[in-house]
Structure formats: structure tokens, C-alpha cells
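Aim 2 progress update. The chain analyzed this quarter is reproduced below.
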Amino acid sequence: MSTINIITVHTSQKWMKIQKRFFDKNTTHKINWHVVVKNREDKLMAESIFACKPLLVEKKCKWGSMDHSLSIRAMHESISGFLDNDDVLLIIDSDAFPIANIDSLIACIVEDIENIYGIQRTDNGDYYCHPAFIMLKQKTVRYLSGFLPNDSKSVWLPYGVRNRYMPHKKDAVGCLTYCIDRANLRWSPLLRTNVLDVMPVLFGVYGNLIYHHGCGSRHPTVDVHRVALGYSASDEVMAKEMTEIYRKISDNVFSRILSDDTFFEVLITDREFTPLHIN
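Predicted C-alpha cells:
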């Protein structure tokens, strides 16, 4: 049985117990948790929940996406010397976790049937592999030299994110996109499988295996979202109204997740939506 090395960044304690609960439920593999936190109180909590030695990385960049990437890089550098080429890595957002057994997914990586699994947020207009969930081997990371940026400037060098709604939008995963293309590696997307789309970007189920809440540790934003919904990017009034609606829905979905392991069924079946209605 393979050991899975999970790298995740928790900017608060909000999702810690939830993420651990769903992984315990949905894989038989041993997990080595490598958790990045932003303060000492969260470090103590992560030690207790994940039975690991969290890495305290203070905020290095005002740009949240970039700071997240720098934190992942710091953790990977701290553990890479202890990893073998065939060790499996899973980089995952704090508000993402499996909702069904992922052992078959892991087996495909272990047996080199696939190089990379990642969610592809076509709902967000993205053409690339999104780091909310990326599974690969340590040797593949080495092929992708540079995909975790060194600083806030390196992300701009190759190109930004290719996005059909905002083609000039740049993001910290631009480096990942560039490195996958440069290495000519195959990656297998997990696509959104929601039957019910409360909102076309947030609360996503991918491949009926992975749930990604979206904006789980911050207030929902409507940058790309409002474009995907057909609203003008200059309509600030509509943007504020949408943001407040998403915040209320997000809070209600989160409350459901806290106590219900089947919360996601309403998103992938035709069941009534009542439990997730906003107040």
C-alpha cells in the first residue's frame, strides 16, 4: 500500500477537521500530512488534527494566489530530500477533499498509467490543470522544474493562465501550465460533474470524486465568476450584490458540510435543493 504525501495550506482552522475527516473516509492508503499554516495557534491545532509537524510560513505576498504558491513551494522544499522518485504527492486546497474513494485514482499514478491528475475548471473558463487538486509523483515534479515559483515575479515570466473569459488574466498557476507544456507531459483532467450548479464556479464536484468549495477561506469574489455569468465587469453594484449572495450560500453549504458526510449528493443528483437555500 502506497503512502500519499499531501501538501496543503491552511490560513485558518476552518477546514482542518473537515479535510482530515473526508480523507480518512475515502482512502485506505497511509497519508503523510504536510500542512502549512500562518500563525502559531493554527500550528498547534494542525499538529493535533493531522498528527504532523506543520510548517509556519508567514505571509510573503499580498497577492493571495502567489502567497499560496510560495507556501506550497516552501513545504515541498522542506520535504523533497526525504521523498523518493516514486512517492505520490497530492497538492490540494484547504477547502477541497474527496467525497468518494480515490484509491483507484491513486493506483493510476502509482502504476504510471497517468502522469498527473488535476481538476480542470472549465466552469471558470480555464484550460489548465488547477492546483486545487493535483496528484503526481515526485519524479514528475522534477520534470516540471520551476512550476512552483520562487518569487512574485517568476509567475509572470512564462505566461499567465489561459482563460476563455479573461484571456489576459494571470495567476500563479501560469508556471504550472507552462512547465507541463514544456515537458510535453500528459495530464488527465477531472471535470465538473455537478447536476445542480448553485453557482457555475463555486461548490464544485469534479469527476464525482473531489469536492472544491471555492473561496473557502475568504469572502467569495466575482472576478471571473461574473464574466462567466454574463455580467459586465464594470457593473460594481451587481458585483457587490452577487458577492453577498455567494457569501450567504457559502456559509449555509459550510454548515451542512460540518455534520453531513452526504452533503454533496444534492449537487450531483436531482434531489431538492431546499437544504442549501440561503436564508
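The CA atoms of residues 226 and 258 lie 28 Å apart. The chain has one domain: 3-276. These observations will guide the mutagenesis experiments scheduled for the next reporting period.
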